[in-house]
Amino acid sequence: MSTGPATAPLLIACALGIEHLALRTGDRGGAGGPVTVLRTGMGPRAADRAVTEALADPALDGAAVLATGFCAGLAPGMHPGDLVVAEETRDPDGTVPCVETDLLVKELVRAVPGRTVHTGPLTGSDHVVRGHERSELLATGAIAVDMESAATLLSAVRAGERPVAAVRVVVDAPQHELVRIGTVRGGISAFRVLRSVLPAYYEWHRSLLLPRR
């Protein structure tokens, strides 16, 4: 039997060790139910496998799933440390609409004041996107790209009906490309933002009064 909305768990999925570290060292107080932070590993296949295995655990029955971590911004004017709230995730395997995005935006503005929050489609890739690929993806309507969010949410909804969302922190953008995360100012800025977003995720989770339809 699925757990009720008030007690349903929250699964927060990220790919990289540095993302996991940011989330583990962030503010863990105020959760409305059990929270699991899952490091999936890098790439869509790893995300699919890890999320599918995690959601097979009865302890995560009915869990809401939120994909998070870093991303590459696609739109001009984006800067490292900006936030992206996905209205939907998309990749060649499918498109998944996200739930309660307006609330996420509101809570992120409160949690990380002064940071710009962008909303729109978040697209998936099986490799790091650079150069001309950015403009090609931007032309599809996507505002940001990462390697795991689309696979994470698609795996989540395939495992059962549940609320899903994706929030990413821009670590590089068209005018601010990075070579290695964490070695330059943009990566450090994104890390600090990611450490600060957990309260917004918990408020989103608490707001889910009805199952996703």
**Fraction of residues in helices?**
25-40%
Terminal-residue CA separation: 18 Å
User: Mean pLDDT across all residues, rounded?
Assistant: 87
Structural class: alpha/beta
| Binned strand content | 15-25%
Note the main sheet.
5 strands, mixed, barrel
Query: Which ranges are low-confidence, i.e. pLDDT below 50, for 5 or more consecutive residues?
Result: 1-5, 179-184
Q: Which geometry do the CA atoms define?
A: globular
By DSSP (H or I, 4+ residues per run), the number of helices equals 7
Please give the order of strands in the largest beta sheet: 3-7-6-4-8
How large is the radius of gyration?
Answer: 16 Å
Spell out the helices and strands N to C: EHEHEEEHEHEHEHH
Q: What is the β-strand count?
A: 8
Account of the 3D structure:
The protein is α/β, with parallel strands linked by helices and 213 residues long. The chain is built from 7 helices and 8 strands. It has helices spanning 17-24, 44-55, 101-111, 132-138, 149-158, 185-195, 198-206; strands at 10-14, 35-39, 64-73, 83-91, 94-97, 117-124, 144-146, 164-172. Strand 1 (10-14), helix 1 and strand 2 form a beta-alpha-beta unit. Helix 2 (44-55) packs parallel to helix 5.
Quick structural gist:
This protein has seven helices and eight strands; from the N terminus they run βαβαβββαβαβαβαα. It has helices at residues 17-24, 44-55, 101-111, 132-138, 149-158, 185-195, 198-206, and strands spanning 10-14, 35-39, 64-73, 83-91, 94-97, 117-124, 144-146, 164-172.
